[in-house]
């Protein structure tokens, strides 16, 4: 059964300001439960949702259910319309936790699987749960895949593109030295990093940890190596008094994954890094942290640099039933924070409920604005993203009667933005420009399928390409450095755009 994309009409308790109107609300659901974990924005003002689904999608191309839970990926446009969806899976449970867009217009999917060889999975399992990476081309067809793991549990949480054209995978592992793991573990779950080249070949892998447990929350490539942020409750040998709970940790790594420095960023009874995001200068990070101080739950917003130095800090008491997981910095040094608030339904049967909630804090920690999106049932915010038009997309799981197609758990999406905003847009865009390999042609309007070509400045035609979707990847890898012209027709109008090949 194809998943249904349903508009939802419900009452909300709203404390609104104009730029955060509810623009639209949608749910996606099938006959079984759906679990959403992540989302990535797209250049056309839309986004792609990532998760796992147990529903049968046999009425759509390449979308029949493969096992218990399959990787599920779907493109949503800026108006909430579902453009396409795909599932990939083996015979067991496959959990899609992360993804990254690739220069050729494709996507790299990153998650964990307990499936053996069969169906979409071409390699045997290595242990209980393995890293499972899938590379899709621009048409969302499977190009290659890798199953990586040891004898235990390996959970892949994060993936980034690297400047050399490859990828860095980061997650947690309790496997010892076995299969793809070259080192014994240090304690419970350790950080496990794997560097891949552009074809998925393993260049190196590193196990990093302490005597207890580590949890990856964020990775980034920086000058000379990589930066990792996570949570750990392993013993910190640099302090004499050890807290019982988790601490927030920054780890700086070389280009080969060797640890250069480690630093604990907060020191309270227990700290939990909920979300980390780049500041605009890309040399600082805003960290959203929940902590416990003298039995009081606190919210910390830290702005830190790449060496772990704290530049600003906001502290605020936090309600115990508020589960936060995303932060965005807005204009004027204010912060938008998103999460879920838990409660109980007051009737004969006391049922837990929850709803999406969003609020803003100024630089002094005072609340400026709040929006509570109350519905019946369980509504758990999993992820929030900011799209190119500066709208906020709240994405999570819901069993609300208003959003669920079968009273199981569905994907739930709400777009917050300015309904009156009609900012001008380029109808045709080229990115990245300059480029070293691929260039993407983005058409921001409805159009009939068309054709185009790549020319030299002297007028020599090098290749033809077809325009059938709003985003088209054009391969310039085999051409020498220089300036090229993309010429194409959109709705009977001819366009010619120069592209610099580095």
From TrEMBL:
Signal sequence interval, chain numbering: 1-18
Keyword check for Ribonucleoprotein: no
Highest taxon listed in the record's lineage: Bacteria
Keyword field: Signal
One Pfam family of this chain: Por_Secre_tail
Domain Secretion system C-terminal sorting: residue ranges: 430-496
NCBIfam families per record: Por_Secre_tail
Name this polypeptide is given: Secretion system C-terminal sorting domain-containing protein
Organism: Empedobacter brevis NBRC 14943 = ATCC 43319
